[in-house]
Design a protein that fits this description.
With 319 residues, the chain is an alpha/beta fold. The protein contains 12 helices and 13 strands. Strands 8, 9, 10, 11, 12 and 13 form a 6-stranded mixed beta sheet that branches. A 5-stranded parallel beta sheet has the order 5-4-3-6-7, sandwiched between helices. It is elongated. The termini are far apart.
C-alpha cells in the first residue's frame, strides 16, 4: 500500500503543477522601457532678417502675417486655425496664390500694416517684411508684441530658407522640411525635362510695366535659369530691378519676352519700336501670372513650371 500511496502522491503533484498558472518574475525582475527625455521646442530664440533675436516662450497660436509671402507659407505650414490675420492681398487673385483656397475664409481678419488693429488682436507673433515701415514695427514692439522680420527675397533658395526659419519659429520644423522637399522634387522634374532640350537656351526678358526689367540677384532671374533659359537682362549686366528705355530692350535681343500681366499692349505688343524683335516676330511673347512670377513663397516653383512649359512645349505636353 505504501508504494501505491507514493505513486498517487507523485501523480497528484504533477497535476497540480500542470494546472497552476504560469509564474511571473517579481516586479524587480521586469525590465521597464527606458524613457528618453523629449527636448522641448520652446522657449526658442531665432535671429530675424534685421539681426534681432526674437524669443518665443511657447508655440504661437495667434499669428498675424503682414506679408503676402508669409500668408502663403503659413497657410500651408500651420493652417487657418493658428492664423488670426493675414494681409488683404491674400484675397486678390491677381497677386495671391491662395485667393481661391477655401481655408482663407476661416481666417477672421484681413489687415494692412496699421498697428492699432493688430495690437487689439493680441497676437503672440507678428510676421513682417524687411521693407515694412520701421515705425510700424517699433509701435508693435512697444506694445509688447513679438515681431519677426522676414527678409532675403532674391532667390528660390532664399525662399526655402525662409520657410525653414518660419517652421522653427512656429514649431512646425518637420512640416517646413516637407514643403521644401516638395519644392525640390518639382524643380528636379523640370531640370530633368529641360536637360533633354537641344540647342542653345533661349534668351528671356521679363518686362514689367513702365520698362522695369529683372536682372541678376532677383527671383525672376532664378525662375528663368531654373526653367532652362538665359536672363537677357542679367546677360546685359543688369543687377536687381532696373528701369530701362526702349533702346536698351532692343539691344538685349530677347528670344522670349515674359510680360507682367499689368503690361498693356500699347506698352509692348502694339509698340512699333519692338515690332522687329525676334520674340515678337516669332510669337514668343507670353504673360505669366504675377502671382507665380512674383511669389515669395513655395509657389515660386509654379513660375518655373509655367515658363519651362512655354520655352519647351514639346518637353512639357499639356494634359
Amino acid at each position: 500500500m505504501s508504494r501505491l500511496t507514493s505513486l498517487l502522491t507523485a501523480l497528484l503533484t504533477l497535476l497540480l503543477v500542470a494546472c497552476s498558472p504560469a509564474l511571473t518574475p517579481p516586479p524587480a525582475m521586469v525590465e521597464e522601457p527606458v524613457e528618453v527625455p523629449v527636448e522641448e521646442a520652446f522657449p526658442i530664440t531665432i535671429t530675424d532678417a534685421l539681426g534681432n533675436d526674437v524669443t518665443l516662450q511657447s508655440q504661437p497660436t495667434r499669428i498675424v502675417s503682414l506679408t503676402l509671402g508669409t500668408d502663403e507659407i503659413l497657410l500651408d505650414l500651420v493652417g487657418p486655425q493658428r492664423l488670426i490675420g493675414v494681409t488683404y492681398l491674400a484675397a486678390d487673385p491677381a497677386t495671391s496664390n491662395i485667393a481661391d483656397r477655401p481655408e482663407l475664409a476661416q481666417i477672421p481678419n484681413a489687415l494692412d500694416t496699421s498697428p492699432e488693429p493688430i495690437i487689439a488682436l493680441e497676437p503672440d507673433l507678428v510676421l513682417v517684411a524687411s521693407f515694412t515701415d520701421p515705425a510700424v514695427v517699433d509701435q508693435l514692439k512697444a506694445a509688447g508684441v513679438p515681431v519677426f522680420v522676414i527678409g532675403s527675397f532674391t532667390s528660390i533658395q532664399a525662399m526655402q530658407e525662409n520657410i525653414l526659419t518660419l517652421g522653427e519659429l512656429v514649431g512646425e520644423a518637420e512640416r517646413a522640411r516637407e514643403m521644401v522637399e516638395a519644392m525640390n522634387d518639382r524643380l528636379a522634374a523640370v531640370e530633368a525635362a529641360v536637360s533633354q532640350a537641344e540647342g542653345q537656351p533661349p534668351r528671356v526678358l521679363y518686362l514689367a510695366s513702365g520698362g522695369w526689367v529683372a536682372g541678376s540677384a532677383t527671383t525672376v532671374d532664378d525662375i528663368i535659369v531654373h526653367a532652362g533659359g538665359i536672363n537677357a537682362a542679367a546677360e546685359a549686366g543688369l543687377v536687381d530691378w532696373n528701369q530701362v528705355n526702349e533702346e536698351a530692350i532692343i539691344e538685349m535681343r530677347p528670344d522670349v519676352v515674359v510680360l507682367s500681366t499689368y503690361v498693356t499692349d500699347e506698352e509692348f505688343l502694339a509698340n512699333p519700336a519692338f515690332a522687329n524683335l525676334d520674340a515678337v516676330q516669332n510669337g514668343q511673347v507670353i504673360a505669366i501670372s504675377d502671382a507665380h512670377m512674383s511669389a515669395t513663397s513655395q509657389y515660386i516653383v509654379q513660375g518655373v513650371e509655367d515658363l519651362a512649359a512655354f520655352l519647351y512645349p514639346d518637353l512639357f505636353p499639356s494634359e
